[in-house]
Amino acid sequence: MGKSKQTRNHNNGKKKNIAKTWKTKRRTKDLDQIHSDMKPETAAKLLHQEVDYDVTGCAQHYCLHCARYFVDMRSLKEHFKTKVHKKRLKQLREEPYTQEEAERAAGMGSYIPPKMIEVKTQPIEENME
């Protein structure tokens, strides 16, 4: 299947471009947002959320690195073994892009290669089952 070329549905003025809505439907957090979530104080809040019935799994099973909620602990553990999670960990190893790095790239200083950060899968609390 390819990109949807349909632009209009009869006289419905709300849907101007269907392809754009499909692209942004499953948008996840960017890597720099996830890096800010990985800081200890925000990570503790995200991993120990209140029960929220509007979110999958009542917001009790959350993957910090992929920014996804899971139905139960078993599916979260299975997710840790998947290729998607491992790829995300590999992407998060590189330090996030900063304003100083942008200035150095523009010629306002000498180039320093980005540092690598060691990222491990979050610890699993067994008592949540």
From TrEMBL:
Primary residence: cytoplasm
Subunit structure: Associates with pre-60S ribosomal particles.
Coiled-coil parts of chain: none
Family membership noted in the UniProt record: Belongs to the ZNF593/BUD20 C2H2-type zinc-finger protein family.
GO molecular function: nucleic acid binding; ribonucleoprotein complex binding; zinc ion binding
Subcellular location: Cytoplasm; Nucleus
PROSITE patterns: ZINC_FINGER_C2H2_1, ZINC_FINGER_C2H2_2
Bias (Basic residues): 1-28
UniProt keyword Cytoplasm present: yes
Domain C2H2-type: 61-90
InterPro entries registered for this protein in UniProt: C2H2-ZF_Maturation_Protein, Matrin/U1-like-C_Znf_C2H2, Znf_C2H2_jaz, Znf_C2H2_sf, Znf_C2H2_type
Keyword Zinc: yes
Keywords: Cytoplasm, Metal-binding, Nucleus, Ribosome biogenesis, Zinc, Zinc-finger
CC per GO annotation: cytoplasm; nucleus
SMART domains on file: ZnF_U1
Name under which the protein is recorded: Zinc finger protein 593
Region (Disordered): 1-36
Pfam families, A to Z: zf-C2H2_jaz
Function noted in UniProt: Involved in pre-60S ribosomal particles maturation by promoting the nuclear export of the 60S ribosome. Negatively modulates the DNA binding activity of Oct-2 and therefore its transcriptional regulatory activity.
High-level lineage: Eukaryota, Metazoa, Chordata, Craniata, Vertebrata
One example of a Gene Ontology biological process annotation: ribosome biogenesis
Organism: Amphilophus citrinellus
